[in-house]
Amino acid sequence: MKPRTSPDSPLLFDTVPLVPDFRLELKARKAGHWPVAGADEAGRGPLAGPVVAAAVILDPRRIPEGLNDSKQLSAQRREELFVQILATATVSIASSSSTRIDETDIRKASLDAMRRAICSLAVPASYVLTDGLDVPPGLDCPGQAVVKGDARSVSIAAASIVAKVTRDRMMARAHNVFPDYGFAAHVGYGTAQHRAGIERHGPCSLHRMSFRPLRKVEDGPETDELLSE
């Protein structure tokens, strides 16, 4: 008997990019939950600056065209969609500072920012879709964590755009206060330019001292998550 071989056609579909839609929101609505919010964060990986979370309740009749994972969009397109989202949806934004990140850890600080964004929505959410593996504790409503959620749900995609644009603007303003690090160019990520600035000038108040290379090596194994947004 010849050994069975796997067909190569599934590999083709594995490479097809996900496109976010409204199906998860409609599924929650069918189960009796409405309105549904999407939530996401930006800035888990940088060496400096806050982690920013956003929660968004889209109006099903006025969903901006082209919503997608913020990383798949150009900076100009993110800015355009940011304006459209704020004009058509219910939006809330919260952040956790570098100090908060150092006092806890990046995961806890991210979830806390997401919780505060969700709980601060002007229209309370009945259900929440969050990007990643976790639903923030302490919510007043049930929720669902969605892996690659910003590529599957337009509500999460909208939240990812709002969080990313907000954080980028914050870091651009931080550059005016701390010009030695190049925050406007890399928004706090550990680029060669950023590391060179730290080497020359030392860290500033925006740096996450619990992250390498800022934390001393003898402090023990890494606890930061140098992840992409």
TrEMBL record:
Similarity remark: Belongs to the RNase HII family.
Binding-site residues for a divalent metal cation, renumbered to this chain: D40, E41, D131
The name this protein goes by in its record: Ribonuclease HII
Entries under PROSITE patterns matching the protein: RNASE_H_2 (PS51975)
Single Gene Ontology MF annotation: RNA-DNA hybrid ribonuclease activity
Location of the protein in the cell: Cytoplasm
Matching InterPro entries: RNase_HII, RNase_HII/HIII, RNase_HII/HIII_dom, RNaseH-like_sf, RNaseH_sf
Domain of life of the source: Bacteria
Catalytically driven reaction(s): Endonucleolytic cleavage to 5'-phosphomonoester
Role of this protein: Endonuclease that specifically degrades the RNA of RNA-DNA hybrids.
Gene for this chain: rnhB
Ranges where the RNase H type-2 domain occurs: 34-223
Keyword annotations: Cytoplasm, Endonuclease, Hydrolase, Manganese, Metal-binding, Nuclease
Annotated cofactor note: Manganese or magnesium. Binds 1 divalent metal ion per monomer in the absence of substrate. May bind a second metal ion after substrate binding.
Protein EC: 3.1.26.4
Organism for this UniProt entry: Rhizobium indigoferae
Cofactor(s) annotated in UniProt: Mg(2+); Mn(2+)
